Amino acid sequence: MSKNCRICIFTRIFLIFVIFLIVISLTLTDKLHYLSIISTWNVALFIIFVGIIGFIFKLFLYLKKQKLSISDKSD
Q1: In whole angstroms, how far apart are CA 54 and each of 14, 48, 50, 51, 73?
Q2: CA–CA dist 71, 64 (Å, integer)
Q3: How many Å apart are CA 32 and CA 26, to the nearest integer?
Q4: pLDDT for 13-71, tens place per residue?
Q5: Cα dist. 5→1, 10, 15, 47 in Å?
Q6: In this structure, are residues 32 and 25 in contact, taking their beta carbons and an 8 Å threshold?
Q7: Whole-model pTM?
Q8: Nearest one of 35, 38, 55, 57 to 46, comparing CA atoms
């Protein structure tokens, strides 16, 4: 899968979610208070949290790979 295909897939998924939210907001106007927890601050905190977890995971994999490559070279 090329990089362009991946970008197109993410764009399509994003657009599907936006359309889904628009449909929900138009049909369920009396029950939208459940979505009040979604604010810009909460979304920003979620993105930062996921980014930190992803960074720690990638760092762990990188250090593990480095350790294996060093031990392979010493044999």
Answers
A1: 20, 10, 6, 5, 29
A2: 11
A3: 10
A4: 999 999 998 888 788 777 777 777 888 899 899 999 999 999 999 999 999 998 888 76
A5: 6, 9, 15, 23
A6: yes
A7: 0.55
A8: 38
